[in-house]
Design brief:
This protein is of the alpha/beta class. It folds into 3 domains: about 150 residues, Rossmann fold (3-Layer(aba) Sandwich); about 120 residues, Serine Threonine Protein Phosphatase 5, Tetratricopeptide repeat (Alpha Horseshoe), CATH 1.25.40; about 150 residues, DNA Cyclobutane Dipyrimidine Photolyase, subunit A, domain 3. The protein is about 45% helix and about 5% strand. Keywords: DNA damage, DNA repair, DNA-binding, FAD, Flavoprotein, Lyase. It is an enzyme of class 4 (lyase). GO terms for molecular function: deoxyribodipyrimidine photo-lyase activity; DNA binding.
């Protein structure tokens, strides 16, 4: 029996009847870049079947000065690989796909002229909220937004900015079971084959599309990760088969297995609900492994969604960092720093700290760094920068430039955590005040020398292709 999409995921943005002379139901594929386990897409199919119409999915690609802020060739390569995979999956299901060089809002507005109904998926960043406002102001037909990239919709989980994981966790624990449910693919009654659709970009060859774009190519694509929902599922299945057992005890150890789902979640190439179901159904691992993974996937990730949704200026030091933390950091801003580095020295990994340099190299050359190292990495930038405000800006710039999953709610939240967000005051120290400090002793929790060797091997593989 086909399970209904939870009502809490559905928001009507323009409450009018669908246009009677529409040629199709339009879906703006913007956050959820996948053809399977996508509630917005399945909702569009349900509505199209009810109206006896085909479905058209669309995507707006921005580059150059108008492109997505801070996105470079590394990010666009992964995005385009995912879109090529999604296009193939959509067409297999009989869904049309239109991709144009324009903002997502403009593409949706233009194609809505012939649509009976517009369906949006949902993201929480300021730029995405701006697109939705622009669309709602311009489109006169019915608009329905369907959440598909968190387990529990943000406003359902909490109606306010949460203080810490400990305040959001019990709310999510009470709510998440009904949302961790299978999503059966709907069969489309009318195919889009007969529609004459103008598309400017054929993403079937993502390398050719990338080559024709105007963007920052200094930070290039990585070979360690290939984009797309097919690759995401392969990685997840391999992790659950070979690396999941022991996750609870080993998740803070870089040498332990990791699922590497964060880039795929960031680009909407896999659903967190699909991951949660797979983890729950995994035959290996114990209760600690399962609960530890769901803590990271749901509680920590959705705490980040809560932060960016309820915080105006989540990328601004003065608004993202709590008052108590800014106050104590200001009081210690003039403290002597044993080491200070320019931003280009940090980016090049040219510090006195061998292990920090290795983490920076992994990030710079492969687009990834283990969470345990990310915390140490960020705290040291605060320690080595001329002021806390400059440290915040540097951390965010480096994060967003090199990480595949940079520019994500998790990224903005994790950077602010370095400076005291979602934390409490600790013992007073120089430079940090009462903001949590992380010393080199934290590296004793794992084999740091083995980590350096592993990074060398990963970077050599990148160079060799």
């Amino acid at each position: 029996m086909r399970m209904a999409i939870q009502g809490e995921r559905i928001r009507v943005l323009n409450d009018v009847e669908p246009r009677g002379d529409g040629d199709y139901v339009l879906y703006l594929l913007q956050q959820a870049n996948r053809a399977q386990f996508n509630p917005a897409l399945e909702f569009a199919i349900e509505e199209a079947n009810r109206l006896n119409l085909p479905v058209v999915a669309c995507f707006g690609l921005l580059d150059g000065a108008s492109g997505f802020p801070e996105a470079n060739a590394r990010h666009y390569a992964f995005l385009l690989q995912g879109l090529a995979d999604a296009k193939a999956g959509l067409e297999t299901r009989g869904i049309g796909f239109v991709m144009r060089k324009a903002s997502p809002a403009k593409v949706a507005i233009d194609l809505s002229a012939d649509a009976a109904l517009l369906v949006l998926d949902r993201g929480y960043l300021a730029i995405q909220k701006g697109w939705y406002r622009e669309i709602t102001a311009a489109v006169t037909t019915r608009i329905v937004q369907v959440e598909g990239d968190v387990v529990v919709p943000v406003e359902t989980a909490s109606t306010k900015h949460e203080y810490a994981a400990r305040t959001l966790r019990p709310k999510l624990n009470r709510l998440w079971d009904p949302f961790i449910a299978e999503l059966t693919p709907r069969k489309l009654k009318r195919k889009a084959e007969g529609l004459k659709l103008e598309t400017e970009i054929d993403v079937s060859d993502p390398e050719a599309v990338l080559a024709g774009m105007s963007l920052d190519r200094v930070v290039g694509p990585v070979k360690r990760f290939t984009g797309g929902e097919t690759q995401a599922r392969k990685r997840l299945n391999a992790f659950l088969k070979d690396g999941f057992a022991g996750y609870g005890a080993g998740r803070n150890m870089p040498e332990a297995a990791a699922s590497h789902m964060s880039p795929y979640l960031h680009f909407g190439q896999i659903s967190p609900v699909e991951i949660a179901l797979a983890v729950r159904e995994a035959k290996i691992g114990d209760d600690d492994d399962h609960s530890a993974y769901l803590e990271e996937l749901i509680v920590r990730r959705e705490l980040a969604m809560n932060h960016v949704f309820y915080t105006e200026g989540y990328d601004d030091y003065d608004r993202a960092v709590p008052d108590w933390a800014r106050k104590t950091l200001a009081e210690h801003a003039e403290d002597a720093r044993p080491h200070t580095y320019a931003e280009d020295q940090l980016a090049a990994g040219e510090t006195h700290d061998l292990y920090w340099n290795a983490a920076m190299r992994e990030m710079r050359e492969t687009g990834y760094m283990h969470n345990q190292l990310r915390m140490y990495w960020g705290k040291k930038i605060l320690d080595w920068s001329p002021s806390p405000k400059e440290a915040f800006a540097r951390t965010l710039r480096l994060n967003n430039r090199y990480f595949l999953d940079g520019r994500d709610p998790n990224s903005f939240t994790n950077v602010a955590w370095v400076f005291g967000l979602h934390d409490r005051p600790w013992q007073t120290r120089k430079v940090f005040g009462t903001v949590r400090y992380q010393s080199e002793n934290s590296l004793k929790k794992f084999d740091a020398k083995a980590y350096v060797k592993a990074v060398e091997a990963l970077c050599a593989a990148e160079a060799d292709g």
